[in-house]
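Supplementary Text 2. Reproducibility record for the structural model of the 327-residue chain.

All settings were left at their defaults, and a single model was retained for analysis rather than an ensemble. We include the record here because the model underlies the residue-level annotations in Supplementary Table 4.
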Amino acid sequence: MEQPDDAASWLARARSGKMTESESLDLASWLSDDRNRREYEALNARLQGLEALRSHPDILAMREEARRPAWFRQPLAMAAACVTILGLSASVLFLWNALPGSSRDAGVVTALYETPDGKTSTVMLPDGSQMLLDAATTVRASMQEDSRRIELLKGRANFVVAPDRQRPFAVKAGDRTVVALGTQFEVNLAEHSVEIVLMEGRVAVRDADRSRPHARDLVMKPGYRLVAGDGNWTLSPVDLRSLSRWKDGLLIFDEARVGDIVVEMNRYLPEKIVISSPAVADRRMSAVLRAGDVNTFLSAIDAIGIATWSHAADRTYRLSEADHKKI
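Retained model, structure tokens:
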């Protein structure tokens, strides 16, 4: 297949979801040119603005135009087609903030990405980096001339970072920040902690508030997981083959707190699980579960005596102390 040589063609290829690893590397190389990158980011920003307005009659009309045979020769039709390719698995709120005294192409591109319960989504960022968002996840992304800033507001995301030594890629989750130049890692924002797993490359993790006493810094190596919370940082080796199976719809827990398991399960459930007792939340168990398979989970905790459950009138699953513990 002929390699694209303009921003519109590259963006259409990236949004198609069919890019090979070789094409991804070619895109990263093409984006290393400042002019190419500005054109790509500006076009992507406009397309995301259209996505936010996809129900407008004018946008719908452009989509119809995009279906005509000559769609690839018309910029507006190309924009509409790319909006269609974006799909509906993640909602996008687009914001454009022009830098004072700068042109539109040199502005700051900011977007808010959200996935609903039970749905994951893959997002190609303007710089060529890729985010895989787990269910019930919210991320704010800001692409600037000298930096790439991501804030994980809720949930979990896996990042494959396009190399760009001039613009560090920083992910803020809670009061921790992960900085990478070109690598693959995962960040999970839990209720009382932040979990970071490094698959490839190297990342630096630091306290977001550098003014706090005893602010910490840590450089991670591949194959390790960092859990930071309640003043403690715990670094341990992990089996990468099983750790990120959530991307395949499989949840694997090894002596995990029931409370943490419930948080993971609830990302995929329209009817949530509620724990009535702190003692139940602190119990531990191992399990391999399909995302959304509430019946298997409830049957397991009942069978091994961790808790009893009931389906309440408010359409939640309530976990309570078992009358006779089997563990």
